[in-house]
Each structure stands twice: as C-alpha cells, then as structure tokens.
Amino acid sequence: MSAARTLAAYVGAFVDELAKNGLSHAVISPGSRSTPLALALEAHPKLRVWMHVDERSAGFFALGLAKATGKPAALLCTSGTAAANYFPAVVEAKLARVPLVVLTADRPHELRDVGAPQAIDQLGLYGTHVKWFSEMAIPEASEQLLRYVRTAAGRAIATASGGPMGPIHLNFPFREPLLLDLSSPDWYRQGERADAYVRVMEGNRGIGKREVERLAAACNGKRGLIVCGPQDDSDLPTAIAELADVTGFPVLADPLSGLRRPGQGEKILDSYDAFLRTSEAKTALVPEVVLRFGAMPVSKTLTQYLSTYSDVLQVVVDPYGGWRDPVLTAAEMVYADPVTLAQALTATVRARASKEWGHTWQRLDEMARAAMVREAERQELSEGRVISELVDLLPEHSLLFVGNSMPVRDLDSFLIRPQKLIRTMANRGANGIDGVISTALGASFSFERTALVIGDLSFYHDLNGLLAAKLHQLNLTIIVVNNDGGGIFSFLPQAEGSSSASFERLFGTPLGLDYEPAVRMYGGRFTRVKSWNDFREAVGGSLEDGGLHVVEVPTVRSVNVAMHRERWNHVSVDVEQYLQKEAPTWK
Amino acid sequence: MSAARTLAAYVGAFVDELAKNGLSHAVISPGSRSTPLALALEAHPKLRVWMHVDERSAGFFALGLAKATGKPAALLCTSGTAAANYFPAVVEAKLARVPLVVLTADRPHELRDVGAPQAIDQLGLYGTHVKWFSEMAIPEASEQLLRYVRTAAGRAIATASGGPMGPIHLNFPFREPLLLDLSSPDWYRQGERADAYVRVMEGNRGIGKREVERLAAACNGKRGLIVCGPQDDSDLPTAIAELADVTGFPVLADPLSGLRRPGQGEKILDSYDAFLRTSEAKTALVPEVVLRFGAMPVSKTLTQYLSTYSDVLQVVVDPYGGWRDPVLTAAEMVYADPVTLAQALTATVRARASKEWGHTWQRLDEMARAAMVREAERQELSEGRVISELVDLLPEHSLLFVGNSMPVRDLDSFLIRPQKLIRTMANRGANGIDGVISTALGASFSFERTALVIGDLSFYHDLNGLLAAKLHQLNLTIIVVNNDGGGIFSFLPQAEGSSSASFERLFGTPLGLDYEPAVRMYGGRFTRVKSWNDFREAVGGSLEDGGLHVVEVPTVRSVNVAMHRERWNHVSVDVEQYLQKEAPTWK
C-alpha cells in the first residue's frame, strides 16, 4: 500500500468511527501538520466542517455547537501554539460539562524537544482540564492499528459524552509526506463494522428505596426549599414541578435551569435574588430542608442565604459525583440521576409543607417582581430591562445567550414569568468573559433565531469570533450593553475602597472604542439605540432579516449602579412592610 | 494589624522585591480577585503598569517587553479562564527563552473544586511550559511570611532570567476582603533589606583548555562552516566574525542572529537560502566540520543541507544545556557560553581553511544575492521586496519585527548587506502566527521606531492586540502583506496534492476582510498601497508621524509563488553555470 493510501486508511477509519458514534461537526483551523485529519474530516460524507482561523474562537465555537446539540463537536488544529489557544474553551468545557473532542496534530517523536519549528510539548497539554488524554500511534494500516484507531475514536466520543460530559484530547503525530490518497471509494471504510465499532452503553445512577424513604421522611411536612441551578436535562423541569406540588416546597429557579417557562406555576420563583437581599426576609425565611439540583445558581444573594442556614439539612444532587457546593453547607451529597430521584421522592413524600410557608415565599416573589418591573419601566435604556424587552421580541423557541458579569445577573433579575419558551444559555463553567461571541455563534446553528446580550469588554475580548458569522452566514443578534468598561466592578468594594483614578484605571478600564466599523468589517449591521423604541425597531428588524446584527445600548456605569440599588431599595421597603404586617408564625 | 494592612504588607513586600530585583513592567488585565496585587503593582513607585483587557494579547505584549529589554516582565490576571488565555505566550516564552513572571490570582482553598464562580484548577496550569510553578501561601504579615514572600519574588526573577531564560508561574490565593490599606508610607517596605533580599549570581559555563584544543584541532585547515541561528547575545556577532577570520570558515548568518549588519565582512553570508536550493551547490559544497551557534536557522534549505552531511562533524553550542538539533546530525553538544567558546577557539586555531573553500561560498553568495535583487527590482509589489524597501526607510537602530510563515522567510532572503544597524525580531520559539502584533507592540516601547511585517491571517489573529497601541500611545508601523489567506501553504505539496476546492477551503482560507475600519477603530491610520512609490510615501510618512499606522500591500498568492520560484530558478541557472566552469577541486 502506498504511504498516501496507508495514511488515508488510518485517518479515514478514525473519522469514520467518530461519525458512526454520532459526531456531526468538526471545527478546523488551517495548518500543515494537521493535513491528513483535515482532508479526511472534509471528505467524509457524514461530517460538516467549519473553518475558523483563530483557534481560541474556534474552540468556543465548537463549545457552542456542542452545548446546543448536547453532542460532542470536534476541534482540529496544527501543532504548536495553535493548540494552546484552545485552552480557555477546554477549561470552560470541563467545568460546564460540555463534550468536546480536541484533536491536535503533532510532529513525530524524532522532531520533538529538539528545536524543530512549531514543535511544543503537547503531551498532556491541557493537564487536569480534560477527561482523557491519549497520545496516538504513528499511522499504519495494519489490521491491529485499524482496530486501535477505531476503538480510540469510539472511546473518545464515549468519554466526552459520558457523564459528566467534557473535553477529551487526542494528540496525533504525523510524519511527512502528509498527503492522502482518497481515490478509493472505501478509503474511510477499512476495518469498519456495520454499526459503531464498539457500542457504549452507560447506566443511570438510581438510589435504593430505603434511601429515598429516608429523604422523603426528612421532607414530610417540613419548611423545605428546592433550589435548581443551571442544568440541561429537559426532563428535569417537569419532574421538579411535580415534586414541588407534592412537597409544597417553593422552587428557587435559576434563569439557566429551564424552569422559567410559560405556565411555570406559582411555586416556581424567579425574583428571589431581589427579596433575599433584605435581612428581614433572610431572617424570616428559616428553612428546615433544602434540596439542591443543578450547578450553583447565578444569584449571589441566594448563595449568601444558603450559607446563613448551614446547619439546616441541605441535600445536593449530582448525577455524576461532582462536588458543586461552594457554600460548603451540604450535609448530604446524592449521586443519582436527578429526574429519577425527583420522581421517586414525588411518589414517596406524604405530607406537604404548611400553606403559610409556601404562601410567604410566593407573596415575596410577586412583590419583588412587581417592584422590579415597575422600576425598570420607569427607566430609559437601563441595563436590566434589555432582557425583558428582548424576551418580548424573540420568537418562541429562540435561544437567548448571555455573557458573564452583568448580563447573566440581569437575566436572573428580568427573565420573569416568560410568556414563551425561550432557551437560555451562558458559559457558567468558569464564568469567563472570553469566547462568548463564538459560543453563541456555535450554538446559534441549532436555533432559528439567537440573541446574545453581552457587555462591551466581553464583546471586545472575542471580536475575532465574529468572523464565523461572516464565513458561515449565521444568524445572530448581539445586544452590546456598552458602558465603556467593566461595569460589574462598580458593585464591588473596590469601587469605594480605592482612589477613583486607580479604580478607573485598574477596574473601570474604559476602552473608548466605537465598534461600528469592526462589525461592518465582518459583514454585520450595527445600530446604536437611544430609546426603547429604537431598540425594538432594531432588534425586531434584525430578527426578521437574519444574519449578523449588533445593537448597541449605551449606558453609564454609575447610573446603572444607582438604578440597581434603587430597585433593590424599593423591593426592600415593600418586603419589610409586608413582613412586619404579616410576620410568619413558624418561629 | 487590620486585614487591609496585613494584605498590603504582604503583597507590598512581594512587588517591592520584584522591583528590587530589576522588574520594571507589569501588564495587568482587569479582574476582582487580583485586586491586592493590581493595587500594589500600580502603587509601587518603581513599577510601570500597562493595562490590557484581552489576556492573550496581554501575554504577548509582556513577551515583547521582555524580549526587547532582555529583562523579565510581569503579567497579572484574575482567576479562571483569564489565566488560560496566557498559555500561548507562555509556550512561546519557554521555547524562545524569554523571561516572564506570570502572576495569577486564585480563590482560596475552600472555594476550589466546589463549583465556585471563576474557580478553575490553576495549580500547575501551564504544565511543562514554565520553568517554575509555585502555589503561594494565604497572605499573612508575620516576619516569617514576609521573608517567604520576598524570597519567592527574588527567586521568581532569578529563575525567569537565569539561563535559559523563560516563564515562571506563581499562583496567589486571596480571601475576601480584597482591599489594601496603603495609607502608611512604608506599606511596601516591610521586611526589606537595603538591596535585593537575596542577591543571585549565576556563573558562566566555560569549557576546559584541553577540550578547546581538541575542537580547534578538528577545525585546523578543514573545510569548515559556522552556522549562526537566532540568538540575542550582542557580543556574539563580533566573536563569531573573529573566529571566521582565523578559521577561514564562511558564516551562514540567520537574519535573527544579529550578524547581518553594516560592515559585516565578506565571510558573513546571507543568501545561502537561495543557492543551497540547487543540487549542484549542495553536492559541491562538502564540509568537513560545522560549528553551530544559536537556535535553528529559519532557512529550511540550510536545514536540508545540514542533514545531507550527517556524517560530518557537526558541533552544536548551547550555553544552557538545550538540545537544538532537529536535523539530528550533531556529533557534539557543547554546553558552554558561546562568546567564551568562540574567543577560546579564535585564540587556539592555527590553520585556516583553503582559500578556494571560502571563495566558492562567497562567490555563490554574491551571485545569489545579485540575482535575487535583480529579480525583486523588476517586480511590482512583490512580498519579498517589502523587506529591502523597509530597511531603506527605517532609521538606524530601529526594530524590524517579522511575523511567522512568509515574512520571516522573506526577511531571510532580503535582509542582505544592510547599510544600517536594524534590530530584527520574531517569535521563533514555537513559530506561531498568534500574538505577533502584541509582541511587536510590547517590544516597540524600547525603540524609537518599530516596523512589523505580517501576513493577513496573522494580522487577523491578533487584531485585539492593536488596543495597546491606542491605550498606551505606542509607535508602530505595520506592513500587512495581504494575500487574503494562508500564502505559505501554496509552497507545500498540499497545493498540488488536494483538489483545488478543498485546498482553498482548508488551507487558502480567504477571509475577504477589509481591515481599514478595524484599524481606524483603534485610532490607527490605514493606507493600501498600489506601487513602491505609494509604499515609500506611506511608510516614510508613518515613521515621521509616529503612532499606529497600517500599510497594506495587496498581493496574490499564486503570483507570489511564481515570483519566488522564478527568482530561485534564476539563482539556480547562475549557480550551475558557475560551478560547471569553476568546479571546486577539493573533491
């Protein structure tokens, strides 16, 4: 067999097995050493290839594809610093539990650590931040090596998509010549089996009847709470709503939990971040048991509330044996499938919480929501209201992606009682401001319409990501909340504790950039709005048109802080008055 | 002591000790967890702080500062993916031997691996790509911890700047509150000594007299060559020129060796890349001994020539015990200071190579040079000639930074017999196309005038880097050779070995971007030139004005390949004719 046919058979078997195991997308950055895999991915009939020049953006783009589909996406780059550019996306994927198959081309052994060009130490490059690393063999087309490479491909997909999902890394040494002979029609079929080479099945973790009974007993008739943080299981919202009905427990539903949706029921609360700020509410609402699902919620107020009651039975449910408890208040860790567990508890719990318990939470939630909405409506171009305005404009089943720092907190405050089903997403693994545009673009492929709300620093950080919109004709409306700098820092003690010059220099970091020309460079349309009418027109129009649109909402950091504080003050006043009048009797 | 004063004393002692050990520059990206170090770096009277929002660009900017000054630069970012964004610059710094002090803020132990926001595993984050990693203690201001933190700072600088220079990483866990009390005038002077806390001295490696004599004997009267790759020791060019005089060995001088300079002497050759392509030259020029200094040269032709003569005594000199020999032809590795060694050999060698040996190399070099210049002069806006035009325009002592892929190869071909002293630089550690703008901007601070020659893909990759020019009013003239895609791939077998559609898609990767608006966004001036007259006017004007200027030279990939091949053909014809007429007699 010629070298070019050997190479084709080896990489062909590999990419074919990726496809047979359900991979559909590969994001490739140009390079020479990666030629064999690039040509094979491009030529395989079942794979779609996305080119992206900047590997950092490419990494996040693949992350977005995988987040939206729930299935692994592949990444391919050449040797050298190209691979190091994937690191931020890999870190995010590990913590956010998103399946990625990272393929890096490498020099063969004889060109390593001897000063050869573009040769860096790629073994274990991502350290503890991948679920699996393997250094692949030098390509051969023997029967054994075809078995090996098909097994490795199947295992890569299984490991990336097994719980908890996450990134894996395979490093491929290639010797020159790097060209493939793809002339034989079965170049990718060597050593194949009819279906996947190895079929991988993964069992669900359930827990025993006795344990369920014990947990149910701890809930019976108690002042309980259900907390549901960011999570992706589409069956969980219903299971939790049913559990809430049976237990009478209010559900504190994170904006990324999937629970904030049309007809969500009174027990599903969404404005707790506002009313739990008041010490009266925090003191009055003494729980006896807390059931926690999903990752840690966005709300810092909720975190502080939970850590206040560290001696209360707090149960953390995780299907995959993580330890998602930064407040360190968990008394029980339950490693079991959340839906199965919630259903089992629903079937077992026998006594509901007192009416007053649920009623108080619901009243406070309604009150906070009303005050927040009332205040937001009075204000022109405030940051938070962007979310509610956007939800009004987005068609059903759209994706609303939010950046970290302020936008995700605004989503928490203003994604309230939505009248349509909107999928929400954010990069909440490591909460970075990097790669957000690219992740949203990758995810946008799975939705008819996608909107991204992002701050100006985060927008600047991933400007390069916009290239994908141009190259691949994607539909994305980006709302840039532009307060010319790092708005979130104005909420921190640093804002008062350092001199205003060094605060502005180190934290405010105004960039003074007009993004319009950059957006145009990538073929997007840019609109700077001055009023909510402008906003509705620009966003509405963009959603009709499709393509890339950037709508800038200029705001002022100090005004924003003042608005938020004013809103919270109004909520406080209402909450305090209510609690004074109708003091709960359970204490 | 209040918590804020304790924290100030601890981080104050640390940054003070960095300064006392010679650190002058710190590049900071905004964040909350890093507040203590950010405020301390900003407030210390001897340190200059550079803000940069994108940590990837910040990393390369610090790399540039350190490359140009030869002294460590510090980096500081907050916890999370921010730190992962430094990875490409860290990898480059390790391989290019550039001193970097990477400081990352981290959550304290109780917030790690429990789902806390922006908490990732930062221990050993950069793996084998740093020289030293240390997890720092939780701040205290005890006498022992002040000794500890001063020692750590001194050791950080000593390790980064000890040979081979490179990056080190310190990870700082900080607990809230994060504010410092800087009201005491001696906040940074706790535990100080008059000078550095520990003075670190590093000896030079010399080799014994007997070994020098043995090496000199191997050179006496032999057909020898000196190869000098990229290196930064400003004393080495003179030492090598003297060694060349005594031995009669031609010197193949890489464009990044510092040897191509006014009055470089006939023995210092710069056009070998062109004439060593011809098999006649390769066959005729049989060496008996090769002395190699510096990193591996840029010229692939030279690499191939060296590997042809793998049975010849090839001696690789490295001051720091590396293994810079990708051709695997070294018979001797000499770990000794190159200047000391060259001077010792100069003093010991007793017989020169035959005149004919040196003469043949010089004639071929002149001939190749003449043909290259002649061909370049006939051509409008060819890629290579950019270098020679630029050298004409740049003032003495300017910096000429080149990107990887084509520009550094063009520098190799066209930085010939310069009539003025121009410092050359490139990122030749990992040869990445990433971070090039930022590295050049960081380096530009040490020069009156700096020009960067870069391809369009590499320019796109680090567009964010331009922000530093705006924020810090730096002077940089960027020449973007825009062939709309990856020009170097057209020289590879992939260009012929794959279908033209998939070649263009996977390797050509045309982006179709007009960079003018993006450059304007960063406050730069943009000029697209159509002729060499335009070029001279635009570049000349930019060097007078200062500030950020981007001059685009549009070229066509296929034309460029044809031009290069035509030039090489002309050289071949001349070389073959010469070697047929005047066949060397040493065979």
UniProtKB/TrEMBL annotation, chains A, B:
Binds 1 thiamine pyrophosphate per subunit. It is an enzyme of class 2 (transferase). Catalyzes the thiamine diphosphate-dependent decarboxylation of 2-oxoglutarate and the subsequent addition of the resulting succinic semialdehyde-thiamine pyrophosphate anion to isochorismate to yield 2-succinyl-5-enolpyruvyl-6-hydroxy-3-cyclohexene-1-carboxylate (SEPHCHC). Homodimer. Belongs to the TPP enzyme family. MenD subfamily. It comes from Desmospora activa DSM 45169. Its EC number is 2.2.1.9. Residues 219-402 form the Menaquinone biosynthesis protein MenD middle domain. This is 2-succinyl-5-enolpyruvyl-6-hydroxy-3-cyclohexene-1-carboxylate synthase. Keywords: Magnesium, Manganese, Menaquinone biosynthesis, Metal-binding, Thiamine pyrophosphate, Transferase. GO terms for molecular function: 2-succinyl-5-enolpyruvyl-6-hydroxy-3-cyclohexene-1-carboxylic-acid synthase activity; magnesium ion binding; manganese ion binding; thiamine pyrophosphate binding. Residues 13-124 form the Thiamine pyrophosphate enzyme N-terminal TPP-binding domain. It comes from the Bacteria. Residues 436-553 form the Thiamine pyrophosphate enzyme TPP-binding domain. Pfam families: TPP_enzyme_C (PF02775), TPP_enzyme_M_2 (PF16582), TPP_enzyme_N (PF02776).
